[in-house]
Automatic annotation (TrEMBL):
GO BP field: proteasome-mediated ubiquitin-dependent protein catabolic process; ubiquitin recycling
Upper classification of the organism: Eukaryota, Fungi, Dikarya, Basidiomycota, Ustilaginomycotina
UniProt cross-references to PROSITE patterns, sorted A to Z: PFU (PS51394), WD_REPEATS_2 (PS50082), WD_REPEATS_REGION (PS50294)
Ranges for domain PFU: 379-469
Protein name as annotated: PFU domain-containing protein
Claim: Oxidoreductase is one of the keywords in the record: no
Pfam families to which the protein is assigned, alphabetical: PFU, WD40
Superkingdom of the organism of origin: Eukaryota
Length: 469
């Protein structure tokens, strides 16, 4: 059984010739919900982590070449639905010579692994009491990361080198619903508390100084799913016709939401109309036709680029400064749950609802024949087959969105339509859901109506929570 959902209807996306699908990584048996990337300073290899509903996380790596094959280095187990992954960079001085692999799970645990010892975590962090939805590390002199949870809190963790363990430095409260997005603006030091952003299903983004709420940003009209601190502005970034014109030293961050938008916000106090009010978004990026789940960034010769992925079967590349949509890349799935960028090549990694990790590159080189080795580059034939599947998904989405729009106009009683695949040889079954419904009753009635196994009820409820919580 698999799931997809439809929000407000819109037209299908177009494809782009500059980015090409080069690798399909097969190791998971269910949705890939999270990805993270790094450049391993010890080996010089690009590395990526993928986490899945199948209760595993997988570590992949390759040489610094878009045409190199990915090696499956390790699998990490023990989760109940792996919902977040992150790398901690190696630091000999801090007593982390190989760094760590972090995973967050529906069981409310954060597991901290030695990358070479995937059999058992070095430490289990149990301070959260609900799903750990997101993990973000910061490259600082002292290792630090932040976690966000459905328990309505975020927590800042610092490395205690005297005992070689993580300790919770701050608990960030005041959100009224699940925390989906986090970001470290300034890490804590011996004399400074640090600055942190959190985003929630309560529609608000909050800036904390230490554990004290400092500023609130409002503007999204649905769940805020992710946050991303953008690189410092280049000298020419403030130029152009975009309004408002940016200050040369302005620091910006991006957010994505179930409302289908990506918004760019300023950390500059000059944008604040009153104390504690972060002001309006300085840019609103529109183009996705459904929920926007994940954000990533990279820089090329033309400047900073922002990548977003979502429930419309695409990831999109933007110039965040002038609000211009540069590329739309269709993926052969409905849900593109997560996106990240490999740091050496600027290749784009996406985690998909069909259990696959896909890698896209500007390099168009292909293998001469179909790949037989796990992680090998795709052949021209394999890439063409994937492109055809992506086009078919976009046609299906366009039809579903039209039907959803018509049904919403007729009854006005639901906020989204979930599409539940019960078998490979049968079309997905639609399930209309509202935030005000009793989700357990909705799932139970659906299972009874279609004579499905009773075990489907819990999974359907979990998916409804993921869409709305």
């Amino acid at each position: 059984m698999s799931f997809s959902s439809s929000g407000p209807a819109a037209a299908s996306a177009s494809s782009d010739d500059d980015f090409h699908l080069t690798h399909v990584l097969r190791a998971h048996t269910s949705d890939v919900r999270c990805v993270a990337t790094t450049l391993d300073p010890l080996s010089g290899r690009e590395a990526l982590l993928s986490g899945s509903r199948d209760e595993t996380a997988v570590l992949w790596s390759r040489e610094q070449s878009p045409n190199a094959a990915f090696d499956k280095d390790a699998s990490f187990h023990g989760h109940r639905f792996c919902s977040a992954v992150e790398f901690i960079s190696p630091s000999t001085s801090a007593g982390l010579p190989r760094g760590q692999v972090l995973t967050g799970s529906l069981d409310a645990q954060i597991r901290c692994f030695d990358p070479l010892r995937p059999d058992k975590p070095l430490q289990l962090l149990s301070d959260h009491w609900d799903n750990v939805a997101v993990l973000k590390a910061h490259t600082a002199d002292e290792p630090v990361f932040i976690s966000g949870s459905w328990d309505k809190t975020a927590r800042v963790w610092v490395w205690d080198r005297t005992v070689a363990k993580w300790a919770c430095r701050w608990v960030l409260r005041t959100h009224e619903q699940a925390v989906w997005g986090v970001e470290i603006i300034e890490p804590p030091t011996a004399t400074q508390s640090g600055k942190y952003l959190t985003a929630s299903a309560d529609l608000f983004i909050r800036l904390f100084h230490g554990d004290q709420l400092h500023t609130v940003y409002a503007g999204h009209t649905d769940v805020v799913r992710s946050l991303l601190l953008l690189p410092p502005l280049a000298p020419t970034d403030g130029a152009g016709s975009a309004d408002p014109v940016l200050f040369p030293d302005e620091r910006l961050f991006a957010s994505s939401s179930n409302d289908g938008t990506v918004r760019i916000w300023s950390l500059d106090a000059r944008r604040s109309p009153t104390q504690g009010n972060g002001g309006d978004a300085v840019r609103v990026l529109r183009g996705h036709t459904s929920l926007v789940y994940s954000l990533a960034t990279y820089q090329d010769a033309s400047g900073s680029r922002l990548v977003s992925s979502g429930e419309d079967g695409t990831f999109r590349i933007w110039n965040p400064i002038c609000s211009r949509l540069l590329h739309t890349i269709a993926v052969p799935v409905v849900s593109v749950w997560a996106v990240a960028v490999l740091p050496a090549s600027n290749d784009i990694v996406v985690g998909c609802s069909d259990g696959l990790v896909r890698v896209y590159s500007r390099q168009a080189a292909r293998a001469e024949e179909d790949s037989k080795m796990l992680g090998a580059p795709l052949s021209a034939g394999e890439a063409e087959a994937e492109a055809q599947k992506a086009a078919e998904v976009q046609r299906t989405l366009a039809t579903r969105n039209t039907e959803t729009s018509e049904q919403s106009t007729q009854d006005g009683t639901h906020d989204a339509v979930l599409h539940i695949d019960i078998a490979d040889d049968k079309p997905p079954l639609p399930l209309a859901v509202s935030r005000s419904h009793n989700w357990l009753q909705v799932a139970s009635d659906f299972v009874a109506l279609h004579a499905l196994p009773h075990s489907y009820i819990e999974r359907i409820v979990e998916y409804i929570q993921l869409v709305f919580q």
